[in-house]
Amino acid sequence: MAEAAVAEHGAGHVVALGPVIHNKQVVSRLEEAGLNQSGELETVEPTQAVLIRSHGAPPETFARAASRGLNVIDATCVLVN
Q1: What confidence score (pLDDT) does residue 81 get?
Q2: Nearest Cα to 38, choosing from 47, 27, 29?
Q3: In what order do the strands lie in the sheet with 71-74?
Q4: pTM score, whole prediction
Q5: Other Cβ atoms closer than 10 A to 60
Q6: Residue 64, exposed/middle/buried by CB under 10 A (0-12, 13-18, 19+)?
Q7: Distance, CA of 15 to CA of 39 (rounded, Å)
Q8: So what's the pLDDT on residue 32?
Q9: ∠ at Cα 36 (34, 41), nearest 5°?
Q10: How far, rounded to the nearest angstrom, does the alpha carbon of residue 20 sit from its chain's CA centroid?
Q11: CA separation for the pair 41, 43 (Å, rounded)
């Protein structure tokens, strides 16, 4: 999902709220492709998309993103409750 998001929105236009997964090689490859994996919701620009990493995020994060009109890409793993 992260790769597809960068391909769709362009390098530098997708911000993940932390490392997408616990795999240094994949994290490095995604950063090289243009994914910002150290973002904080408050610093995301309206022209950027927010990627919710595989570990998920609390409902408040989704609500804050929606209140700012941000495009949210939910990459939460299906095994996360």
Answers
A1: 67
A2: 27
A3: 35-36, 14-16, 49-52, 71-74
A4: 0.88
A5: 9
A6: middle
A7: 6
A8: 94
A9: 145
A10: 7
A11: 5
